[in-house]
């Protein structure tokens, strides 16, 4: 088993075709086919089902692709970190970002890292907090924004901020950021909510559990994008983090307001693995993210948020 075989395996699995993989790898098709065949002979099982729809990994193939991809990423990271000048911070850093804060965080983070650490290559992976935590535990991301998480045996957690959740409605509802909406008003409306088991849904259910009115749930979804689309289409109101809807509210696409009586908020934290030494590029990106969070909150670019404690510093 060598790097050429692992590279061919991962590439074929990603594009679903030996022909496409050969083009991407700048090889002839028989060479890629041979690498896959040699790998299958070595492990003693079929790694792909050859179908009219393309090359589909078998269960064994999927398991090997997962580990091969991780191994190739680590080797790529090691190559990027080896530089003639050891003072130069360089390498590949994979950052997990909550779906609900992508618009607020990702563009300025990419800009800040490019300006301060031009030799760092960022990879951004966006998902819900539960998925991000799994990826962080598995080593698929180097650091990640998470919410409502305390430290665990495998993760070190740095509190960043606490942000209020907003009621989100069509523009015709006339909600405004300076006029909070009560739970009583919210529960008069049909609701578009995350599916049960989702972290945000758990917050919502816990907050309304003491109220006598049962919610009228119009639809449950597993996507913030779908929540907003369904609200826009008039299927009901919803509850989302302020950072996830502030741009839509400012653009007049949706209307939104802080939720009150009682207020509902979540904490956003930075998670890092305890199980391995933190490489200098990861430390650099973590520090940049901390500085960025401070700036976003203090400038009001992250609405309805307040710092949990001082994060980073202005010069570090």
Strand content: 25-35%
Give, in order, the helices and strands: HHHEEHEHEHEEEHEHEHEHEEHE
Q: Residue-averaged pLDDT, rounded?
A: 87
Helix share bin:
40-55%
Count of discrete alpha- or pi-helical segments spanning 4 or more residues: 11
Secondary-structure-derived class: alpha/beta
Stretches where pLDDT is under 50 for at least 5 consecutive residues are 310-316
Biggest pleated-sheet summary = 9 strands, mixed
Characterize the structure shown.
By secondary structure, the protein is α/β, with parallel strands linked by helices. The protein has three domains: 3-81, Arc Repressor Mutant, subunit A (Orthogonal Bundle); 91-161 and 267-307, D-Maltodextrin-Binding Protein, domain 2; 164-266, Periplasmic binding protein-like II (D-Maltodextrin-Binding Protein, domain 2, 3-Layer(aba) Sandwich). Helix content is 43%, strand content 25%. The strands form three sheets. Strands 3, 4, 5, 6, 7, 10, 11, 12 and 13 form a nine-stranded mixed beta sheet that branches. β3 (91-98), α5 and β4 (120-127) form a beta-alpha-beta unit. α1 (3-15) crosses α4 and α2 packs across α3. Mean pLDDT is 87; it is low at 310-316. It comes from Phytohabitans kaempferiae. Keywords: Activator, DNA-binding, Transcription, Transcription regulation. Pfam families: HTH_1, LysR_substrate. InterPro entries: LysR_HTH_N, LysR_subst-bd, WH-like_DNA-bd_sf, WH_DNA-bd_sf.
């Amino acid at each position: 088993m060598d790097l050429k075989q692992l590279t061919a395996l991962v590439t074929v699995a990603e594009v679903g075709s030996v022909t496409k993989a050969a083009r991407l790898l700048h090889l002839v098709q028989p060479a890629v086919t041979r690498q896959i065949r040699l790998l299958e002979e070595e492990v003693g099982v079929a790694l792909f089902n050859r179908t009219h729809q393309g090359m589909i990994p078998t269960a064994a193939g999927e398991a090997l692709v997962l580990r091969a991809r991780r191994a190739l990423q680590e080797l790529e990271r090691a190559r990027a970190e080896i530089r003639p000048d050891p003072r130069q911070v360089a390498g590949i850093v994979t950052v997990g970002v909550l779906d609900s804060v992508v618009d607020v965080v990702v563009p300025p983070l990419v800009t800040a890292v490019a300006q301060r650490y031009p030799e760092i290559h960022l990879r951004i992976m966006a998902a819900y907090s539960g998925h991000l935590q799994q990826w962080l535990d598995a080593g698929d991301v180097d650091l990640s924004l998470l919410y409502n998480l305390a430290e665990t045996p495998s993760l070190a957690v740095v509190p960043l901020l606490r942000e209020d959740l907003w009621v989100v409605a069509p523009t015709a509802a006339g909600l405004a950021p300076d006029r909070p909406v009560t739970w009583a008003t919210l529960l008069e409306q049909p609701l578009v909510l995350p599916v049960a088991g989702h972290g945000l849904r758990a917050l919502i259910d816990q907050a309304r559990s003491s109220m006598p009115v049962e919610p009228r749930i119009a639809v449950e979804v597993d996507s913030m994008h779908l929540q907003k689309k369904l609200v826009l289409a008039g299927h009901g109101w919803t509850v989302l983090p302020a950072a996830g809807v502030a741009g839509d509210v400012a653009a007049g696409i949706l209307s939104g307001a802080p939720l009150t009586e009682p207020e509902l908020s979540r904490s956003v934290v930075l998670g890092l693995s305890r199980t391995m030494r933190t490489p200098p590029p990861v430390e650099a990106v973590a520090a940049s993210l901390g500085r960025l969070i401070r700036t976003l909150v203090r400038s009001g670019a992250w609405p309805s948020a307040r710092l949990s404690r001082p994060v980073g510093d202005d010069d570090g």
